[in-house]
## 1
Amino acid sequence: MADAEISVVGEGRASSARDDGIQVLRRAAAALDEIATAPGRLRLVDLHSRLGLAKSTARRLLVGLVEVGFAAVDDDGRIVLGDRLLGLASADAAHITSAFRPTLERIAEATGETVDLSVYRGGQMLFIDQIESPHRLRAVSAIGGRFTLHDTANGKATLALFDDADADVATALAPLDQAAADRVRAELREIRTARMAFDRDEHTEGISAAGIAGRAAGGNVVAISVPAPTERFKEHQNHIIAALRSALDSPLWSS
């Protein structure tokens, strides 16, 4: 009987340790998401406020992230992602870029427009590859740039992969007023049916875009978008949509 009691106690401690470990990982992931969303703009006081943690807990979390190279703090106390994490992310991005490059090339050839490849990271879209249009007047985004979700074609295509009640959607729409958030939610429902998202002069005046998104290997959410000056986009919209729909048939998407 004593042995059985010892076993139960041991299992309870092991379960508690696992729960504690999972909580730490969740907090670390949340902290990295916040840092990635506002790189070089957050200090410890911002981190503990955004995470809803005691300052001492946030400090221990940050110290741990810095020790393993997942975060770094400059002389002014501002927090950025660490070299070790950026190296892992770069390797991941390189794999995705290599896999999707032929698809981007086919879309570029079919449309004659710029084609962008981005991944969902930290509540934003991170641009990882691009084929530029040969037109003198063209839409170009910097590789490594981050864009919001609610007003971009790739961002809205990504949001449509989540349910309306998902935290990712709620976070993306949080800066909007109620009316604007409701409009985006209605648009997301349409995107889920059509599997195509649009940005019509929303993110940048004079630039429109169409985009698709899906889940790829490793659970990454990947988006492909075609931006163009609005007048030319309207003129060639059908060709752009057809090229993107063709890309949806690629075996690169896991679901």
## 2
Amino acid sequence: MTHIDVLRVFCGPDGRHGNRLGVVRDGSRFPGDEARRALAARLGYSETVFVDDPERGLVDIWTPSLRLPFAGHPCVGAAWLLDVPELVTAAGVVAARQDGEFTWIEARPEWAPPRTLREFQDPDEVDRLPLPPPGEWVYAWAWSEEAAGRVRARAFPGRGDGVEEDEATGAAALLLTARLGRALNISQGRGSQLLTAPQRDGTVEVGGRVEPAGTVRP
């Protein structure tokens, strides 16, 4: 019987919160797009990762409704679990490293799926936002302390697949970092933390804490 690892990715400093991620270590047990889409929908996490080659770090990322060439919190979580120096995604090779309590990945902004980055003037505005109707993928953000690079954010996928709000979204953090051109310390959702740093070659590092959250059966 296959067991699926469940992780919380981008946990806060107290080890709480983070975005739940399912990782299927033996992806060969779910061959084909339909089997993977069905499992991702049944699990109901914002993303599920199928590991097709653990030594090479070859992964396949699914939302409950579609495949993603790249996504941030699945890559951070898979890198932590597999403890590999890189992951091979459909978008390209994602470098990975461990640094104390943080796991970091390095990726190109153009690999991230399109997001609408919507700036607000005050973190309280972000906190008060209602759930938008399905359609547009919105990353709402505001400076909480601009000089220190601190950001308050919430993410609304708008996919209509049951995931109304993402607790922590690495790809959107990557895009915001590329737009602003500076390192960020992002508080997202109920209390998740994402750290980012732009690199000289145009890539962006995204890092966070990962905690195990048990296993489930498919």
## 3
Amino acid sequence: MDLRRFLENAGSVARTQTILRAGFSDREIRNAAASGEVCRLRHGVLALPGAPSDLVAAVLGNGLLTCASGATRHGLWLLHQPDQVHLLCRHGGPQNTVVHRESLVPHRTAEPVASITDILIHGLRCLPEVEAAVMVESAVRQGVTTLPYLRQRLPGNRNGAARKVLDLVDGTADSAIEVVARLLFRAAGIYTQTQVDLPGIGFVDFLLEGFLIVEIDGRSHLEPRQVKKDRLRNNASILTGYAVLRYGYADVVYNPEKVVAEVWQVLRGRVIR
């Protein structure tokens, strides 16, 4: 394996000591830097041109991407990109970053990214509960963790808030925005069923109070074939006796009060409390 291929496998950036331990010589490193094949970001750190900025920040900060900054590197859902880089640093840590200290499971990849367990535990302790629930839900859906596993690693009073977030996760959502919508409806006191298979209609995202179907539309719902399918499903739903509302990402994330108000407008008069 040549030096360029090694760096590609390591996320395009690595410390010189890591490269030397992999079997490359000082001469190979000097030649690659002199030719412009790799760049010296500072003494002891090499990168390929155009290396991802978050991975560069991790190596320069002598840490690993974790929490919201490490989530997408493991294919986990993220509701919002973080304003600051989150790093797992055993000692110190650069300014203008969010530093996490504790590590439960060592990372096993060449990239400077923490393990999924560490990313999830840090997210549960650090992020707003809805954003943390989104991240954990995706991990559960992927089968890379379980709720009992995470709960066991959050003992004591200091982790009480993090354990409460786990109660919001049920592993039924197909997307991050469905997690947000589910929590929104349940927080409003609405009886909410998810991914319900209705005869003659198929699976619906939400069935509220047994008669209101709510669908959350992603980008695929703008495609002509999907528009036609949605129209047929809407008609079948109404002809079967259900009410239907449809919302997009911006509605649920940026105007949740309006969504809940419209839902209650449909439910009002048919729900006896």
